[in-house]
Amino acid sequence: EYPKGSSSGNTTVVPDNSEGATTANSTDTTSPVSVPVSQDTDTLRTSIGTIPAGGIQDENVKVILFGEQGSVQSLKISLEYRVEGSNAIFVKEVPYQVTISSTPINLSIDAPAEANPNQEITLNVKATLNATKPVSGMLLRADYPVGFQFESAKPAPSFGNNVWSLGDLPPGAESDISITGKMIDVADGEQKNFHIFSGSESDSDKSVIGTVFNSLGYLVTIKKAFIEANLYVNGVYQTEYATDAKTTVSGEIRWANNLDTKVNDLSISAKISGNAFDPKSVTTNDGFFNSSNSTITWDKNTKSDFAEVNPGDSGAVDFSLSPVSLFSDSAGMLSEPQINIDVSIKGSNALEGNAVQELDNSESKVIKIISDAGLAAKALYYSGAFTNSGPIPPKVGEPTTYTIVWTLSNTSNNISNAQVHATLPSWVDFTGSISPSTEDLTYDSTAKQITWNIGGIPTGTGITTADREVSFQITLNPSLSQVGTAPVLINDAVLTGHDDFA
After folding, report:
1. What is the dihedral sign for C-alpha 289, 412, 442, 472?
2. Rounded distance, CA 442 to CA 449, Å?
3. Coil, helix or strand for 411?
4. Higher-confidence residue: 389 or 46?
5. Tell me: the pLDDT tens digits for 164-217?
6. How does DSSP assign 304-348, residue by residue?
7. CA atoms in the 13 A half-sphere facing the CB of 218
8. I want to staple 322 with a disulfide (CB 3.0 to 4.6 A). Which of 48, 108, 281, 430 is the partner?
9. 3-state secondary structure 3-44
10. CA 496, CA 75: separation in Å to the nearest integer?
C-alpha cells in the first residue's frame, strides 16, 4: 500500500525479514507504480503462488515517490497466506518508511528580513526544476500571514491571489514570481511567516496542489518606522476605499514619533490627484493647501509644536474634499473616477557629534468613486406598451389596469449582476404582460415579488447611450376602504448590482 503521487524516479522497496515473517520481496512482475504522496493510498496486489516449506521467494516492486524534501513516507507491506490443511487466512504486515532526501523543485525567496507597518514589501520567488525529466501540471502556492494585504503580482495569479500554474516544465526550467503587498494592522516586533509550496495539481481540482514536492518558509520581522503617518479615510484604514460622488471625503492623518529622541522640523504633506479630484473643495485645519501642486502641508509654520516633537509624541491632522460630478455637459462622462492621496512625513534627528539624521516615511491611498446608477419608475394608462382598461379614476368593484415602466441609467463604471426587486400590494395583481419580451422579468405569486434580472449596465446607459427599460402590466382592484385615497400601485423598487471598478 503506497501513498499516492506522481512518477519521477524509482525506489526498490524491501521489507524487513522480521521474526516469523515469510519473506515477500518482489520479482519484476509489474511495471513501475506511480505514487503521489498524499493522504490517500494506492494498493498493489500480486499473487506469488506456492512457497514450499523452507523456501524463499523474492518479489521486487519498483516504486517512484514524490514528496516534500525531508518528509518521511510510509509504505505497508502485507503477506496473506494459507497453510496446507487449513482454510484460515494468515496475515503478516511489515511497515516500511522512506525519507525523501531531494526534491524535483528548488525554491528560493528574495525579500527583506524587516518591514515597516503599512509599507509595501515585495517577495521574489524562484522555482527551479532540477529533475532529469519534464514534469507536467505544476502549481505554486503562497500562504500569506495574517495582516498581509495582497496588492499585485507578476505574473498575475492563476487562481485567487496566491496560486500560480507553472504548466509543464522541462529540466532546468526557472519560474520567477514577484508578489507585492503591505503589512496592515501589525505590531512592532511581530514576526510574520510566508510559506511557499510547489507540487503537481490535483486530479479533481486544477487549482489545488495534490502532491507537495517542496515548500519553503520565509520570516519577516515587523519594525516600526522612526516616524509614521497613517491616513484614515472617513474613519477607515485601508489601501483602497470606495464612496459615492455625493459624499464628502474626510481624511485624518495620524502621526507618531517612535524614536526615543526628539524629532525636529516635523512636516507632513498630502498630495492629491486623480480625475475625480475637485481642488476647489479642499478644506483643512492648521494646514496650507497649495493649489498649484495640489498639496496640503502641515509644518512648523502652520503648527508651532511641529518645530520640536518629543519622543513618543503622536497626534493627527485632518482635511476634507469632495469628488467632482461624474457627468457634466462640458467634461462629459468621467471614466473610472478615483482620487489618489500620497502622504509623506519628514523630520530630522540630532545625533552625536552634531550630525543630523534625516527621517522620512510615506504611504498612498486610492479612493474609488462608485458609479451613480439610477432607477426611475412611472405608471401609465393612456400610453405605453400595452392597452389598458377600466375606469379612470378607479371605482370600487371594477378592475383598472396600468402599465409600470422601469428605466435605468448609469454614469461612470460598468455594473454587473444587476437586479431590480419590488413587491405588489395585496390589492394589485400581475397580469403577466412584459415588454420587451426579451427582458428577464419574473413574478413570484406567493411573495407577490417582481424581479428584473438585468445583468450588466454599461457605462453611460441612459445618458450618453440609449435607455434600458422594461414595461409590465398590473391590475388594481380597489375596495370600499380605499375610497377617497390614492392606493399604492407598486411598493418601493430597489436596484442592486456590483460596481466593477469601485
Report:
1. positive
2. 8
3. coil
4. 389
5. 999 888 888 899 999 999 888 788 889 999 999 998 888 889 899 988 888 889
6. GGGGEE-TT-EEEEEEEE-BPPSEETTTEEPSS-EEEEEEEEEEE
7. 21
8. 281
9. ECCCCCCCEECCCCCCCCCCCECCCCCCCCEEECCCCCEECC
10. 56
Task: Work out the number of other CB atoms within 10 angstroms of the CB of residue 107.
Answer: 20
Query: Measured between alpha carbons, how far is 303 from 41 in angstroms, rounded to an integer?
Result: 70
CA distance 444 to 424: 10
- Percentage helix, strand, coil, to 5, in the chain? 5, 50, 45
Query: How many other CB atoms are there within 10 angstroms of residue 131's CB atom?
Result: 19
Return the C-alpha cell found at 389. Answer: 382598461
Q: Decide: helix, strand or coil at residue 123.
A: strand
Strands (DSSP E) along 144-261, which ranges? 148-154, 163-169, 174-183, 191-201, 209-222, 227-233, 240-244, 249-257
Q: Measure the N-to-C terminal CA separation of the chain; round to a whole number of Å.
A: 53
Closest CA to 131 of 61, 200, 217: 200
| Residue 324 burial (C-beta neighbours within 10 Å; 0-12, 13-18, 19+) | buried
Cβ distance 194 to 218 under 8 Å? yes
- Using the structure block, give the residue that is written with the C-alpha cell 392606493: 487
**How far is the C-alpha of 281 from the C-alpha of 392, rounded, in Å?**
51
In 234-388, the DSSP E strands lie at 240-244, 249-257, 263-273, 283-284, 288-290, 295-298, 308-309, 314-321, 327-328, 332-333, 338-350, 356-370, 374-380
Which residue type sits at 176?
A: D
Other beta carbons within 10 Å of 411: 25
Band of residue 388 on the pLDDT scale cut at 50, 70, 90: very high
pTM, 2 dp = 0.63
Query: d(Cα 312, Cα 308) in Å, to the nearest integer?
Result: 12
Kindly give the residue spans of alpha helices, DSSP state H, lying in 145-234: none
